[in-house]
Design a protein that fits this description.
heterodimer; A: alpha+beta; FAD/NAD(P)-binding domain; six-stranded mixed beta sheet; elongated; B: alpha+beta; 6 strands; globular; binds zinc ion; sarcosine oxidase activity (chain B)
């Protein structure tokens, strides 16, 4: 059982005791602990259950690569699942819960999966749960959802604040170990601006724990000296708790700063996402130790050898009284020495190499520690935790030579450089035959806009694992990065490290080498996703050759740790099974972020009202004061209706319609898109962009126009007004103004650049108010200033003048079928005009109406609405708008497409009106007309669907429009519409113009 | 996230300030074209791994469309140039050939 040692602990401050809770139990730790070290100090070595088999799992690592120790951190609205205990700094009041177990961590019902593991092989989701389909829905899925998945998702909104931070620098150094510090110093002394970031809460990385001596001083002192020197330089910034998360195109790097995690609720910002542009990025990201694949390597108490000495040295935590070291490297001996130095027992060092030698081996032997050469572990004993190991020959099949009792097993499988950042944007890797790892290929870096590499690796991240070579590499990297950017002051000095390089490691991918199925089936590669050696071998047997396919089939490396520990071992097993060398099998793709980052940081400030800007009309405040119900239209907020007192929305809409049709209504139409198109070729240009002829439009007149894409599909509509010989005002839909303006500019700039045309989007420069209804003219006439008689301003004409002293442009156009004037007014005067119209119209009962009344009135007239009657596959002819498609013009956008046979098919869906047999029944939006036949898939055959459907207070019945196959031939037919409850509603196909077919109401 | 220099306003624009417009130098086939030409104009794209000519718009800047010649594999940018041309100008071709001597303009 793990415990706190009486002395030592480089990072902890024993005078500052912190209390925290785990699964509701109160525990204590020290300032400087991580949650993982504090849990171990309290003897809590069972921290969770594995994903698939619910096997008990303990802490394996001491850093970001930890696969097992994921906890739900915090409570209530600050609860966050899947947080790694190894990088969670302890603070007073921290609350954590273990995950993926039910009903409890100690007793877990899902652990039965482990006994069924024979039936849950690689690809089990694909194999087992495909058939029968009903079983999937009712049996497998509910069970899997209950028992699978790691932490629960939070149910409440995140109360904390997150932000983005933008930065530019010459050289970004990712990693603040000795290599990062040396590289930063070399770059900074050459004159470059340097930003150095370190994910941990301290600089120096592993150097102090590993007993590194540089320039005659111990690492801790050397690191302090470098940090002090760098801090004093004006061209250097240092940041702790900041991880380089992703490297992207052209030197764009995201950093993830955990600014407030130790102070929940009190810190002004919890996480900060840095968006950095760096001239060069130096990846000084160090290396990660590999576990070893032997049976039972996932039992709590089996740890990385480096993590064992981290816990002892940094936190004074004993992982157990007796630690067996199993190693393929000299480095494992450092752990043996650290364990012994802490006064703990090392019953044996099992070295897979037949003839271990060198200074570290000698030092261990000199301490009287038993070293067994050519040996490995056949099997770990113990269920909840390690109780001992069975020793075997590494070269054999696992025959047990001896049983050695112990509480901890330290695995030293060799080191792999952290190549993630290098690889994110295309840096390539080399397989190192001596060190048995992938390392960055310096000749194939990720490249920037100039074609030059923009990333440089430094230190152990480059490959060399001994301190002297790593430091030399780092200084050179920092200097080279600065020099590439034109900073070349002085010559860098390379710090000298004491000691000699370690001897070569052995490649140990399976322990023992000849392990049979029984052992392979208990040797885990991916601890978090429960992928074993046998799973990868099975995948290879079943024909998987690509590492990317094998990854997805077995789920190797697909957990939240993204295979930081399992990648190379899994790859080696696959390579062995396929009989292909490792570099040929290759690695899976390294994708950002390096470790998971919070969704809050990704969202930054873009939440709530800042998620998307809202556009407000100049009359917005009046609508708000009048109690408008809002409807989002594009980025706008428009009044849906204005309920009075206790009035329902539907009653309000009906009242607004009736008041408008019988008296006068007022609509804020300011959101309509308004684009001025001017220049000598304006008319010719509009002839190309609209399906109609616009060049024949007379000055002062209006014409309803349609715009299609080059595919022939209708995408926007609106009234075009000819303001003068060479200028037009094009109205667009409310949501479409930016899109249409961009569309016009694209054609002008990239296809018809010879045309002399200028466009400007003046949507927000003008307010627009529609005054609608039989009494509209008299209200305007009382305001005075303009002759608005039918003779002076006929239907589809425009007039400019002043109305009640305000300069206006009036269009006599109608979207309701009523006598209607749309009045454009400079935005700053829109509210004044609105107020004036309300006051003047009060005697006539003038009634503001919202978008729903607008919709019902346009539907009563059979007018289409872009987005209701159109869906990106509808052409004007489908909507009976063929009259607006010019046959005279030789070209317009979409003309060629309309010649395609599919667009002239008489069975295309066409717009019709519908009257339900039951006039009180309003058809559901989108309801399908069904033929009663079934198609070849056994589904109901549909004839079409409802596009607009309303209660019409004017006609005192429901009305609808629909797109129906061969619609115009079906007038008078009765169609069946299927309702959600399975009932059928019958409706008769009619002319979509329900009201005033001859247009007498507006023609007055 | 790419950086492209807008040839109109001279700004080195971040990709978030730009809107992509797909392959450059397409020939519009309108009324009178046959079905194959029209299909290719609407849908057929080269999508090469290597040198590519693209349309971009400085959407959150000056609003202008422009062309970029770049390598889709290495992300190297050979240059940006006016949208008002139907083939890359000579200096862009020279820049590409300098960096990619074996490259040939596809037919
Ligand atoms: Zn620009």
């Amino acid at each position: 059982m793990s415990s706190r040692l009486a002395t030592g602990g480089r990072r902890i401050d024993r005078s500052k005791r912190l209390s925290f809770s785990f699964n509701g139990t109160k525990l204590t730790g020290f300032e400087g602990d991580t949650l993982a070290s504090a849990l171990l100090a309290n003897g809590q070595d069972l921290v969770g259950r594995s994903f698939k088999y619910h096997r008990p799992r303990g802490i394996v690592a001491a850093g970001a690569e930890e696969p097992n120790a994921l906890v739900a951190l915090g409570q209530g609205d600050r609860m966050e699942p899947n947080q790694r205990a190894t990088i969670t700094e302890l603070f007073d009041g921290l609350s954590a819960r273990s995950q993926n177990h039910w009903p409890s961590l100690q007793f877990d019902i899902g652990a039965i999966n482990a006994r069924l593991s024979r039936f849950l092989p690689a690809g089990f989701y694909y194999k087992t749960f495909m058939q029968p389909r009903a079983a999937w829905k009712h049996l497998f899925e509910p069970v899997i959802r209950k028992s699978a998945g790691l932490g629960p998702a939070p149910t409440q909104g995140d109360p904390d604040r997150y932000e983005y931070f933008y930065a530019h620098t010459d050289v970004l150094v990712a990693g603040g170990g000795i290599a990062g510090l040396a590289a930063a110093r070399a770059a900074a002394e050459a004159g470059a601006r340097v930003l150095l970031v370190e994910q941990d809460s301290r600089f120096g990385g592993r150097s102090a724990t590993d007993g590194v001596v540089i320039d005659g001083t111990d690492a801790e002192a050397w690191v302090a000296e470098q940090v002090a020197a760098l801090s004093a330089m004006p061209n250097v910034d240092l940041r702790l708790r900041t991880m380089a998360a992703g490297v992207y195109d052209h030197g764009y790097v995201t950093l993830y700063e955990r600014a407030g995690d130790r102070d929940p609720g009190a810190a002004p910002v919890r996480h900060r996402l840095w968006r950095v542009r760096a001239g060069r990025t130096v990846t000084a990201t160090g290396a990660i130790e590999r576990p070893i694949s032997f049976a039972g390597n996932d039992r709590p108490g089996v740890m990385l050898a480096s993590a064992v000495r981290d816990y002892i040295d940094l936190y004074a935590v004993s992982p157990g009284d007796r630690t067996v070291v199993v190693t393929a490297t000299d480095d494992g001996y450092r752990t043996a020495l650290a364990v012994r130095d802490a006064g703990l027992d090392v019953p044996a060092v099992l070295d897979t190499r037949p003839d271990p030698k060198g200074p570290l081996v000698d030092a261990v032997r000199a301490r009287g520690i038993r070293v067994e050469a050519g040996r490995g572990i056949a099997k770990v004993r113990g269920t909840r935790r390690v109780t001992g190991v069975d020793i075997c020959a590494q070269a054999g099949e696992g025959a047990v030579i001896e049983h050695v009792p112990c509480e901890c097993v330290a695995m030293a499988g060799g080191w792999s450089p952290v190549v993630h950042l290098w690889s994110h944007c295309g840096g390539k890797l080399l397989w190192d035959e001596t060190a048995h790892h992938f390392r960055p290929d310096p000749d194939r870096p990720p490249t920037g806009a100039d074609g030059q590499g923009f990333a440089v690796t430094a230190g152990t991240a480059s490959g060399p694992m001994d301190t002297g070579a790593a430091l030399a590499d780092a200084v050179e990297a920092g200097h080279r990065a600065a020099k590439a950017l034109g900073h070349d002051k002085g010559a860098p000095r390379i710090p000298q490290a004491d000691g000699t390089a370690d001897g070569p490691p052995a490649a140990v991918w399976m322990m023992p080498h000849g392990a049979g199925p029984e052992l392979r089936g208990k040797a885990f590669l991916d601890f978090q996703n429960d992928v074993k050696v046998s799973d990868v071998q099975l995948a290879a047997q079943e024909g998987y050759q690509s590492v990317e396919h094998t990854k997805r089939y077995t789920t190797l490396g697909m957990a939240t740790d993204q295979g930081k520990l399992s990648n190379i071992n899994g790859l080696a097993i696959l390579s062995d099974s396929l009989g292909a060398p490792i570099p040929e099998v290759g690695t899976t793709t390294f994708r950002p972020p390096y470790t998971p980052i919070s969704l809050g940081a990704v969202a930054g400030e873009a939440r709530g009202s800042l998620f998307k800007p809202v556009r407000r009309t100049p009359i917005h405040d009046w609508h708000a004061d009048a109690g408008a119900v809002w409807e989002p239209v594009g980025d706008w907020r428009r009044p849906y209706c204005y309920p009075k007192d206790e009035e329902s929305h539907r009653d309000a809409v009906n009242r607004e319609i009736t008041a408008t049709r019988s008296g006068v209504g007022l609509l804020d139409a300011s959101t309509l898109g308004k684009i001025i198109v001017s220049g000598p070729d304006a008319a010719a240009f509009l002839d190309l962009t609209y399906t109609n002829m616009m060049s024949s439009l007379k000055v002062g007149r209006c014409r309803y126009g349609l715009m299609c894409t080059e595919n022939g599909f209708l995408f926007d509509d609106g009234v075009v007004v000819r303001l003068s010989e060479d200028s037009f005002l094009c109205h667009t839909t409310s949501g479409g103004s930016d899109r249409v303006h961009a569309w016009m500019e694209e054609w002008l700039q990239t296809e018809w650049w010879d045309l002399k045309v200028w466009t400007s989007n003046v949507t927000e420069q003008f307010g627009q108010i529609a005054i609608v209804g039989p009494k509209a003219r008299s209200v305007l006439e009382r305001l005075g200033g303009m002759d608005l008689s039918a003779e002076a301003l006929p239907f589809m004409a425009m007039a400019e003048g002043t109305l009640g002293g305000i300069g206006v442009r009036i269009f006599r156009i109608s979207f309701s079928g009523e006598l209607s004037y749309e009045i454009a007014v400079p935005a700053g005067r829109a509210r004044a005009l609105w107020d004036m119209l309300l006051a003047e119209g009060a005697a006539d009962g003038i009634t503001p109406y919202g978008t729903e009344a607008l919709h019902v009135m346009r539907a009563e007239k059979g007018y289409i609405m872009i987005g209701d009657e159109t869906d990106g596959t509808v052409i004007p002819q489908d909507l009976n708008l063929g009259w607006a498609v010019s046959k005279k013009k030789s070209d317009f956008i979409g003309k060629r497409a309309m010649e395609r046979s599919a667009l002239t098919d008489p069975d295309r869906k066409q717009l019709v009106g519908l009257e339900t047999e039951d006039p009180a029944l309003v058809l559901p939006d989108g309801a399908h007309a069904v033929s009663g036949q079934t198609n070849r898939f056994g589904q109901q055959e549909t004839l079409g669907h409802v596009t607009s459907t309303y209660w019409s207070p004017t006609l005192n019945r429901s009305i609808a429009m629909a797109l129906v196959s061969g619609g115009s031939r079906r007038m008078g037919e009765t169609l069946d519409f299927s309702l959600e409850d399975g009932r059928i509603a019958k409706a008769r196909v009619v002319d979509p113009v329900f009201l005033d077919k001859d247009g007498e109401r507006q023609n007055v | 996230m790419l950086i492209l220099r807008c040839p109109y306003c001279g700004v080195d624009a971040e990709e978030t300030d730009l809107a992509p417009g797909g392959e450059a130098h397409l020939t519009r086939h309108g009324p009178g074209s046959d079905d194959a030409e029209f299909r290719d104009y609407l849908f057929q794209r080269r999508n090469p791994r290597g040198v590519h000519f693209e349309r971009w718009r400085h959407a959150f800047g000056c609003g202008k469309w422009f062309h970029a010649a770049r390598c889709t594999q290495t992300l190297e940018v050979f240059g940006t140039y006016s949208a008002q041309c139907s083939e890359p100008p000579e200096e862009i071709m020279t820049a590409i050939r300098t960096r990619r001597p074996d490259w040939e303009m596809p037919a």
